[in-house]
Design a protein that fits this description.
alpha+beta, four-stranded antiparallel β-sheet, two-stranded antiparallel ribbon, 5 helices, 6 strands
Length: 187
């Protein structure tokens, strides 16, 4: 799967900075997170209200849901914070801050992809966050071969935590947790 193009995305910190530069008295209020269950899946839901407080009555309300528990090492144990950040970015986007063709923020896309995107001069470098070591991959592939299995098609997208869990499962004679492939491109 090709990594998403994040060159046009604006992160939440920048959206909030743009908002507060134009409206220094703006208020950002987050609701108490709650767990929502839909079709057997749990999500943390956070709703954010932004008021610009300039007498124009310009306001925005946005919600974000984050799978609970988080599905990657980057979202697990920080589901509420990720949902809150996404909701703040979306509300700021609804007011027109940081929009470049998508309401999704770079953080949201990266969290769904488990990738790190950095800029090195004129080159954008995209890589799996916390990639497995060569030794980990070698051991994982060896254990799979010994068990008569082939490596998953998305092995290049697995991080070191996913590979480690799969290795431990194989050592215990268990079936490794299946790492689902995304159904479609995010957002």
């Amino acid at each position: 799967m090709a990594a998403p193009d994040l060159s046009n995305y604006v992160d939440v910190a920048t959206r909030v900075k743009l908002l507060l530069e134009q409206y220094p008295n703006a208020s950002i209020v987050c609701t108490k997170p709650q767990i929502i269950s839909i079709a057997g899946h749990d999500f943390v839901e956070v709703t954010v209200h932004i008021s610009v407080n300039d007498g124009s009555n310009r306001n925005a309300v946005a919600s974000a849901w984050e799978p609970f528990p988080g599905k990657t090492p980057y979202t697990r144990d920080s589901e509420m914070m990720n949902a809150e950040t996404s909701a703040v970015g979306r509300a700021a986007g609804l007011l027109g801050f940081g929009l470049t063709g998508s309401l999704a923020t770079a953080n949201e896309v990266q969290n769904r992809q488990g990738v790190t995107v950095t800029q090195q001069g004129n080159t954008t470098v995209t890589q799996v966050g916390n990639p497995p070591s060569d030794k980990q991959l070698w051991l994982y592939k060896k254990l799979l071969k010994d068990a008569g299995k082939v490596p998953p098609v998305n092995i290049a997208e697995m991080d070191k935590f996913e590979v480690s869990r799969a290795i431990e499962a194989l050592k215990a004679g268990e079936q490794p947790e299946e790492i689902p492939l995304p159904d479609e491109e995010p957002f």
